Amino acid sequence: MTASHAATAPSLAATQRRIWMLAWPIMLSNITVPLLGLADSAVLAHLPDPQHLGAVAIGAQLFTLLLWSFGFLRMGTTALTARAAGAQQPLQVIQSLQHSLWLVMPICLLVMAAAFVALPWLLPVMGGSADVQSGAAEYLSIRLLSAPAVLAQYALTGWFIGLGKTYVPLLILTLVNSLNALLDYLLVFHVGMTSDGVALGSVLADYSGLAAALYFARRHGLQSLGTRPPLATLRPLLRINRHLFVRTLCLLLVFAFFTAQGARMGELTLATNALLITALLLISNALDGFSHAAESLTGHSLGRANTSQLRRTLLLTALNMLLLASLLTLLLWLAGPYLLSLMTNQPELLPQLQRYQHYLFWLPLVGVASYWLDGVFIGAQASSAMRNAMLAAALLVFLPVWWLTREWGNDGLWWAFYAFLLARALFALNTFLALWRRPQNFM
């Protein structure tokens, strides 16, 4: 580290304040994500026929599955933007967003192709009556129209996180969810639509969110998309996104395998695991605030070649995430019975949840290291290490542990999942130590 860097490096207290300023908008915006599904469900639950609620539940899950596969667009944009912002390269900052937005349309074509191929056999797998599946197909035919807006928002959200402007995604998500709830009400109760109205409301809200995101991007320097970039200039983004796509696909397959094995043990086990995994996603959303702060500040520190600030960032984001994970575990332990009663009132399901509730209680502490390292590695542009750790954890740990503990039933499945989360961090440890000891290799 140079003398000028030593003189200007923020103190621990200043870095902590910066971490919290970046983290709290992400935490708050992540809380609003479940509200989108809650608004859809609340409106449809007031209709006399419950099939519409089932149709939207299935359709929304499949839509999320398709789009989440391409969530690398957010992470890759964050990685390049944070590095360019830290190095004070305004042209590269703008180009990182322009290049990501140019990738949206090709990725949209992949999403549509995947939907065309996969949905005809995925819909029956999701279950439900013929009317429910028909409604889900209708919902998806409308909802997929918003794929360009959702993917573009991935890129824009990643850009704002890379810049350290995490309050912007909060404003956009608040707008999208509020508008979606209002449109649901108007289209269902005043226009007479059902699940198709919920889908249309989501499409209109998504494009309104995109318009708002572009407005904020223009205020932060984006004047146009520019000319179509040559392939050579896209290679850094494509390289990062390629690794992240494989990593995300592997994670989705682990969840799919977990769900499939639970289904083989019966409907009660399937429902129990589904509720616990849903709670896991809420836990990861809470921890994501500090993970995104690690992405942004790690990239900025490496862009400035500021090793002292990098180590402060690594230390404080780790401590913050560990503290939050400990508090979540304590909260889940104390509020467990009340939480389970909120999740379901079915008399046959509640005992199953109580039997496996301890796996939920310890999930924040078991998964915190892998979540934190994901944020650090995105900021360090170490996407290949993320991919390798995910593949190794899935193939060398998750599947073997599941195989060896099959006689334990659902307990064995959960122990395999625990081992998978811990192994992700373990296989990434060597790269992290290299970043800590020799950060210049990542600059």
From TrEMBL:
GO terms for molecular function: antiporter activity; xenobiotic transmembrane transporter activity. This is MATE family efflux transporter. It holds the Pfam family MatE. It is a multi-pass membrane protein. It comes from Thalassolituus pacificus. Signal peptide: none annotated. NCBIfam families: matE. GO terms for cellular component: plasma membrane. It is found in: Membrane. InterPro entries: DinF-like, MATE_fam, MATE_MdtK. The keyword Repeat does not apply.
